[in-house]
Amino acid sequence: MGADITVFSLGGTVAMVPEADGRAVPALTGDQLLASVPGLANLDAKIETRDFLRLPGASLSFNDLHRLATDINACAADGIVVTQGTDTIEETAYLLDLLHLSSTPLVMTGAMRNPAMAGADGPANILAAIQVATDPAARDRGCLVVLADEIHAAARVRKTHSTSPATFASPTTGPLGHLVEGHPRFWSPPTPRITIRLPDSPDFKRVVLFTATLGDDDQALHAVARHADGLVLAAMGVGHVPQTYLDALAEIALRIPVVLATRTGAGSTLTSTYGFPGSESDLLAKGLISAGFLHPYKARILLTTLLTAGARREEIIQTFHEAGDVNA
Fold first, then answer.
1. What domain range includes position 318?
2. For the CA atoms of 44, 74, 136, 194, what is the dihedral angle to 10 degrees?
3. Statement to judge: residues 92 and 122 lie in one domain
4. Is residue 317 part of a domain?
5. Is 160 annotated as catalytic?
6. For each of the chain's 328 residues, which pLDDT tens digit applies?
7. Do 12 and 70 share a domain, yes or no?
8. What CA–CA distance (Å, rounded) separates 250 from 231?
9. Helix count (H) and strand count (E) of the chain?
10. 298 lies in a domain?
11. Of these residues, 13, 92, 262, 304, which one is catalytic?
12. 196 in a structural domain
């Protein structure tokens, strides 16, 4: 008997068509998306579509994704696929990964070229995502991101180019696997996952992301932190900031959790290599929490989810050490 697959469509470029002025907007239903995919009839799968939203990826909200996660957790399908805009997949996939409470394969995909463009990549990406979702090897892996026949972990995947169809990559670890002749090939077995349970009607906390830049003072840092419940600091290099930030960070860290990540896009923050004012060891001594290998975008998603779930400081620290593989 074939697999039952549910496809949730959220909009995005994969579902966009040009209007009279030639500019694309989300318009296609889930059924219309699947109608454009060659090879679906050859799969041993029964596919149901759900038109969940019709928005560009940049307009999705935490509440939208929480409602989607609730529906996914209640879904009895053997595998689940979500199509959405690629602008935010690296963030939404990680949020869904944290909220996905079952072992059911969950796969996200999208497109860089809309269906009216030459070389539209949506049909191939949708087919690949469904092929992964039907495979038992995708179980217990949380949320996966599948584009260009590559399979990525939600916690590691990044959009690395604004227009290239080969934009998605996992810079530090590489992909989890590839599709070969329509079959997923994973390079390693599933690993332990972090999942978080939220209230039925969560009040999502406000976590801001602040990037350290050359020659900056502390005025903007104070301003963005003033009404925040948490702060992620995208620091230079392995976790360094201008000395002008130090008094502000010490004061902010007494009020709210402040997570220290690297703005470089790959690699980990350190804990004890440097000792100057504004170094990683100085900032950790002031109460900042290391994000380790977690990219700042992912760190913001994790801190938002933990604070919304009511996690205490020690739980936040422990979870970040786990998620970021911090060498504490």
1. 207-323
2. 150
3. yes
4. yes
5. no
6. 689 999 999 999 999 999 989 899 999 999 999 999 999 999 999 999 999 999 999 999 999 999 999 999 999 999 999 999 999 999 999 999 999 999 999 999 999 999 999 999 999 999 999 999 999 999 999 999 999 999 999 999 999 999 999 999 999 999 999 999 999 999 999 999 999 999 999 999 999 999 999 999 999 999 999 999 999 999 999 999 999 999 999 999 999 999 999 999 999 999 999 999 999 999 999 999 999 999 999 999 999 999 999 999 999 999 999 999 998 6
7. yes
8. 12
9. 9, 16
10. yes
11. 13
12. no
